[in-house]
Design brief:
This protein is α/β, with parallel strands linked by helices. 43% of the residues lie in helices and 16% in strands. Strands 2-1-5-4-3 form a five-stranded antiparallel beta sheet, sandwiched between helices. A five-stranded parallel beta sheet has the order 7-8-11-6-12. Strands 9-10 form a two-stranded antiparallel ribbon.
């Protein structure tokens, strides 16, 4: 038979060695005892508190609320958060659990109050709330900046220098040349120059010189008179140079412009006038020209593929856009921007883990911002989990070299033609993701542009 414990010293020993702070209140609201953990938490000793009432403790601001009164009133265990003040005057937050002790008279004789310090927990919550608020504000600012800077998102000092220079160039009316690798955002910088210029309310037109067949690019740029050639519209046609009068014309991939056509562009830049195809009188325009290329134009000049006089006429003001590997600190904010974009587009709620963002920041993305955007889109779209990690990258990352793509078809049960078509389709699909124009794909794969265009059409690769 188990004997009841009647040794008060033993009871006090047990209470003092409890893991939580304890204060015992009787039915008349008198403090009967506290333990050592309570003294450690509050700074108030058992000797100081014993004999006080709950009213005394509230009056002295030792406590701000009384859980024991709620227990007596509700006749049950009560748990609440309570702001208390220590003997040093510092405030702390505790969770208090008030437990009723019922006497033989079926009335509550005592309330045992157990206190747990949750100040650290609250600080963590507040820190997380503050971090989330800061994060939300940064995203809000990110959206504002993206709208103000034509979608340009950056954090690196290197890109800040580019934007500062672009703001100066935008205020001028001179021709500008934007240089940089494929996918660095040259078209966005061109748009930024227009949107921050005095021409912002007028037309901004773009033509990709590498994407338009040589036989068509002259008519697209300069237009033609009626009857200029077989198949021409009876009324003639305005070209982009004319349509962009008082606005901006962006010549993307200027390095792919046919050599013979470059002299007409040179005349436009020098005289601010041009002839339509089949025209006999010059047309005056006030069109600002911005050009861009990922090629080394000086090398093109040496190979007699680009006119030197046109190069110097275009290169009045220039901007060299750094590749993403030279501004890796932009990758996290770019990745987050693309995540938001594709979450909204596909009605998803994917999240990028910190580990994944750190890993992306170390990748050598040869396709730069465009390749990162394509990568994030594939991650968001094809990964089944909500939180995207490094484990989702295999199968999503592009191969290091398109030529190294392996054929995954069943060789044993496939014909040579099927294998070749599969390999070509895979190769061209990856090349189309990485490179913007058929001319650029042709250069990289050492194939004629016309062949690339024909193959893309054959395999229906958009």
């Amino acid at each position: 038979m188990i004997e009841k414990i009647t040794d008060l010293n033993l009871l006090r020993f047990i209470v003092n060695n409890a893991a939580c702070a304890i204060i015992l209140i009787d039915k008349n609201e008198n403090v009967i005892m506290t333990n050592l953990e309570y003294e450690k938490l509050t700074g108030y000793t058992d000797r100081y508190l014993t004999g006080m009432t709950v009213g005394d403790m509230i009056e002295k601001k030792i406590i701000h609320d009384s859980v024991s009164r709620k227990v007596m009133r509700q006749k049950q265990t009560v748990v609440l958060e309570q702001l208390s003040a220590g003997s040093s005057g510092s405030e702390y937050l505790v969770m208090v659990k008030g437990i009723p002790y019922w006497g033989q008279s079926k009335e509550i004789e005592y309330v045992i109050c157990c206190l747990f310090d949750i100040s650290d927990k609250r600080r963590i919550i507040e820190d997380l709330t503050a971090s989330n608020l800061k994060y939300s504000m940064e995203l809000l600012q990110l959206k504002k900046d993206a709208a103000a800077n034509a979608g340009i998102v950056y954090r690196s000092p290197l890109m800040q220098t580019i934007i500062d220079k672009a703001e100066i160039i935008a205020k001028t009316d001179s021709t500008a040349l934007i240089l940089g690798e494929s996918g660095t955002g040259k078209s966005m910088i061109a748009r930024f120059l227009h949107d921050n210029s005095q021409r912002a309310d007028n037309t901004f037109l773009t033509i990709n010189c590498g994407a338009v067949p040589e036989s068509l690019i002259e008519s697209e740029l300069f237009g033609y008179e009626k009857g200029a050639f077989t198949g021409a519209q009876p009324s003639g046609k305005q070209g982009l140079v004319e349509l962009a009068d008082n606005g901006t014309l962006f010549l993307d991939e200027i390095g792919d412009m046919p050599y013979d056509l470059q002299v007409k562009l040179l005349r436009l830049l020098q005289e601010k006038e041009f002839f339509r195809i089949g025209g006999t009188r010059p047309l005056k325009v006030n069109t600002r020209i911005i050009a861009a290329t990922n090629q080394n134009l000086k090398e093109q000049i040496e190979k007699k593929r680009f006119r030197e006089d046109l190069y110097y006429r275009l290169n009045v003001l220039n901007l060299q856009i750094p590749p993403l590997r030279e501004r890796a600190e932009d990758i996290p904010i770019l990745a987050e921007t693309f995540r938001l974009k594709f979450n909204e587009r596909y009605q998803l709620q994917k999240v990028l883990s910190h580990e994944l963002i750190n890993h992306l920041s170390q990748l050598q993305l040869r396709g730069n911002v465009r390749e990162l955007e394509n990568l994030i889109e594939r991650l968001v779209l094809f990964s089944t989990e909500k939180v995207l990690t490094v484990n989702h990258l295999p199968g999503i990352l592009e191969p290091e070299d398109p030529a190294a793509l392996s054929c995954t078809m069943d060789v044993e049960h496939s014909t040579y033609q099927q294998l070749r078509d599969h390999f070509e389709r895979t190769l061209l699909t990856e090349a189309k993701i990485r490179y913007q124009t058929t001319a650029e794909i042709g250069r990289q794969l050492k194939v004629d542009q016309s062949t690339i265009s024909r193959k893309l059409k054959k395999y229906k690769i958009d």
